[in-house]
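so i finally got all the pieces together for this one. its two components total, 499 residues if u count the protein bits. some of the lines might not be protein, just check the labels. i wanna see the whole assembly predicted at once instead of chain by chain like last time, that was a mess tbh
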Amino acid sequence: MEIEKIKFERTGGFAGIRLAAEIELDDLPEDERRELLRLLDELDFEELPEKLARHAPVPDEFSYTISVIAKDKKEYTVSAGDAALPADMRPLLEMLESIAKRQMRKHKQDD
Amino acid sequence: MHEHNHPMNCIVPPHMLETIAANGTPAQRDMAVQTLVASAEMRGRRLALSEYLAAAMRQAAPGGKSRLIYDAKTGVSLPGTLVRQEGDAPTADAAVNEAYDGSGATYDLYKEVYNRDSIDGSGMQLKSTVHYRKGYDNAFWNGEQMVYGDGDEDLPEKDRLFNRFTISIDIIGHELTHGVTQFEAKLVYSYQPGALNESMSDVFGSLVKQRVRNQTAAQADWIIGEGLFTPNVNGVGIRSMKAPGTAYNDPILGKDPQPGHMKDYVNTTSDNGGVHINSGIPNRAFYVTAMELGGYAWEKAGQIWYVTLRDKLTANSQFQDCANLTYLTAGELFGKGSLEQLAVKKGWADVGITVDDGTTPPPPPPEPGGGCLESFLRLIGAAPAKTR
């Protein structure tokens, strides 16, 4: 699959403040892009079920939704709650989270 | 209990079963262990049976204040390494000491004011883990313990938005109260019951802070999460119970989305149906009630809300139910037509909810409760039928 962009959203948490980003792969630094693709590949992202770790909501946990959009416009979406997140998902989430935080701060500087 | 001595087939969160396995009566423990084992087999999880048996054998603390503070050392394993326990001297780590002092102050509020012995009412140990993950902007209650992140400590100072989550004592009271709600009203964590669940955590979190500071309702700031934002953020805290929607307004984080009136109720599927958003409405109802009554908010307003949480609210209670039930409780505690009861009525009226003052009976609780989990808990006797 050729990936065009990734949509990332984190909601909930004690503060209830949404963190979201649309990440165009071509805009990322080369090493980051490569690492992201490697993590998605390792997880077999397009084969993952749409909802991971179904469980009753945990008070104040984060909820994540990740959508991978292919160049052919096919979309693969996975959502998961933080507390029961499979360990192998963490590196991907942490990377997306940090890119999203960076973008959020950069948008402010651009204003 | 013998006829019920089989595992349940419905989905009960494993963390809750583990809590029951650790803290329940012998019959409850048996049930929980069997269910855990069965579901572990079903899911093909490689779970050590001995782990659950050990949990089942573990006895609850014999009562009284018992705090355990763990350090996750930026990892994800819970609870982590034990670094301070009840009676130990302070350590050099501010987060450890804040978790210890904050959970102590929360225990004291519940014990000394409401005569409740810990989260479960029977001396459950208060476990907290600090330094959870890296750059973790959150705190949560996982069904068994509190978990706190360090905020943006991994970023350069100029980019940091959040400080460590133990910094504000009401956050600690907030998380522990999620535990109390889990053992009492069991409010479902979505839409209005979820917003009530959140509001109860803010109410008692704020009361912990007000009591530690010896502030009357009029002296208190009614801010939740004061000090959590770094100076880079334009905001005084995460939520304002007094004026929902005004806690922050920042170019990066946006504006505090909380409504303080039913006319501004936010319909959304995000955040479990807006549990951290619409909680502004019952939060303000509590604030107005407390201001009407004057003095220390934990004494009368807090008592009314606590008894309502413990004895009246059920898993699917809505805002209107909470209004009716706090009003009913105020009447039981202080007398029909008392100033206290009128204050409750005024509190809810201020946010656009008219209490049903008894001319028609309040709607019966959903039977037999909030579905599968509720039925399970009733079955094992962890959720006694509510009396009205």
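The interface with chain B takes residues 11-18, 54-63, 82-83, 87, 90, 94, 97-98, 101, 104-105, 107-108, 111 of chain A (CB under 8 Å).
The helical segments of chain A are 30-43, 90-110.
anyway lmk what u think
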